[in-house]
Hints:
Blueprint: H1 5-14, E1 20-31, E2 41-58, E3 62-67, E4 74-77, H2 91-103, E5 109-116, H3 125-140, H4 147-162, H5 169-176, E6 181-186, E7 191-196, E8 205-210, H6 222-239, H7 257-263, H8 269-294, H9 297-313, H10 320-330, E9 335-341, E10 348-353, H11 358-372, E11 381-385, E12 387-388, E13 392-393
Parallel strand pairs: 3-5
Antiparallel strand pairs: 1-2, 1-13, 2-5, 2-6, 2-12, 3-4, 6-7, 8-10, 8-11, 9-10
Helix pairs in contact: 2-3, 2-4, 3-4, 4-5, 6-8, 8-9, 10-11
Amino acid sequence: MESQNCIEVFENMYHRQIDGVGFCPYRVCTLGAHIDHQHGKINGFAIDNGIHIAYGIKRNGIIELTSLNFPKRAQFHINSVPEEKENDWADHLRGATLLLNEKYPLHVGMCGVIEGSLPIGGLSSSAAVIIAFLSILCKINGITLTNHELILLAQAAENNYVGVSCGKLDQSCEVLSSKNKLLYLDTNDDSYEKIEIPSNMKDFKIGIFFSGLDRSLASSSYNMRVDECKSAAYSILAYAGKEYGKYKDTFLRDVDRELFESYKDRLPVPFYKRALHFYSEMDRVEKGVELFRKGDIESYGNLIFESGASSINNYECGSENLIFLYEILRQTSGVYGARFSGAGFKGCCMALIEPDMADKIESEVLSKYLKKFPNLEGKYKSFICDSADGVSME
């Protein structure tokens, strides 16, 4: 874990040494886009950039955190967290504290400085902040969470407090991942496998290409897409005369592919398209895992391109900027595969690329992108990353 600016800022701000640093990596999902909230299967990596929190213990129970990426300091007491969100970046911290305190009473607070090493958007920085923060709170309060508990708490903070209907993809990649291994996770039963990169596979790096546009999941169409998927599942079960429970507890994973094929023509077009993306993406994940095991990075990459196309045509996400960025990557030599990263409403694209071609790829994408969007010069950025281990403490 490299030394970060947050340590220097902390020491200058509080005139004391830090008690430690928590780090949670960002993540990329190579296959399994937009289906974790329907209990689908995913592939992903943690990357060697993420959220650092330099912290100090506060015995009075106060939580006081400053972000180097956002204005306004967050300050509240562990035992008097506002019940309702305040619609700022610190809602993620408040929600995490409230939920942890309900299960494991807290006694110790903290002061700290949060720093993200890449621009915001598409790499699940919100989940990374929550996980790093929760890990520190647990450590200083003598609490030991299992990986599963940490994942579910972090997800609940976004679902129940912030108001984002996300699945477990982000949190799982950021907690469970290991360097040089592909995470293969079934979000339906939380079973997972970490697949070693085969010795016969060509080398690859992970390219991150930021559109230069910011976005917020809570204010984007993300929650609407989740509802459309659920509506497709609910409708199919009803048409088929199958039992179904509450709407919130119904997922496309509950609906057999054969049922979808039988009743797809009766679905409204948006519901049909969301379901088609789900089933085709499940197929891509399962095919992709076998290709990855064989070391076939080219064919695996082609599935990533197909996933990107389905995100555009069936899931119908992606701004003009992101779609153009995806198309550039699709036409660039040395790119094995690319698609939107994250919800795909602004944010960034990720790509698996040939390491020797990295400089050429970055230069070519920059030139073509800024030719179309010259107003984003200085805001558009790209980074070349490696896979990494999940959350850690120093």
